[in-house]
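User: Can you model how zinc ion sits in this protein?
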Amino acid sequence: MVNSGFVRFVFMVFVLGTLAAQDQQGAEKSHPVVLKYLGTAGWEITDGTTSILIDPYLSRINGPAPPGGGSGHSLAGDTRRVYGWGDVASPDVAAIDSHIQRADCILVTHTHYDHILDVPHIALKTGAIVIGTESTENVMRAYGVPEGRLITVRGGEDYEFGSFSLKVIPSIHSPLDHKHYFSSAIAPAGMKAPLTLEQIHPEGGTLAYLIRFHGHQILAFGGMNYIEREIVGLEPDVALIGAGASRKEIYDYSGRLMRDLRYPALVLPTHWDNFLAPYGASQQPALDALQSFLQEIAAASPKTKVIVPKYFEAIPLETPAK
Ligand SMILES: [Zn+2]
Ligand SMILES: [Zn+2]
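Assistant: Here's the modeled complex, given as structure tokens:
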């Protein structure tokens, strides 16, 4: 005869186990991490409470093209104002306001205008902290972003923020202009807004970021390059990988990345669109060019899922494998 105490014990274990499972599901459901592509190298990562932005650039001005073309070129028939290096470009406040309601933290990979033009406005509007190089923070200072909200990094830092943690990874810029792009310039201290495009275009060094958030590890690049020894051993489940044409200047770009990162479950191509075209314009040529990147990832890491992001479309992350 079975001991009734034992039956009660088994029942309790079953009930507690079920409750624990429901609780875990509830926790996952209440904190789904969602990514949104803002265009260029821009992303929003949020759990509905904490919002992290990476290189948010929504103004998409008809500005100067990168050296050698890169991933930006003016569209024929574009009737918008053409900006030169000596011009001051104001952020497109309407575009920003319709898509960015809040931000707690803005990560900037480097101080080029297609990464930083909108950051002072977004930082002032949201009260977010801005994490970036000394060059990036000097641009923030010019626009009066309070010193207390600026966290200057050089790569190598690994910081705890409570709801997420952040490893700052030394990196290098896309090999634009068939490897002839090089800049050691940094935006100096003491500048006063408004700044010309030239003043918000000294690279200031390039960083990548590993964001640990609700059990996910999201590795974000701002362009088409990396320092291999700095990424070996990272095991992100999500990687935002620069997919513009200049990656083809690099030896086995996608293959080395996939091996070094231990074959991430999800890859999201970034900085692949033509950022000199407005949001409504066709990105078909860029999408066509992106196919070779998709093939590279499929060849190097057949189990990796690749999602070609649409502007502002929510990409919810699946529960990470524990
Ligand atoms: Zn750049
Ligand atoms: Zn760029």
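A couple of observations from the model: The first strand starts at residue 34 and ends at 39. Residues 10-28 have pLDDT under 50 and may be disordered.
User: Helpful, thanks.
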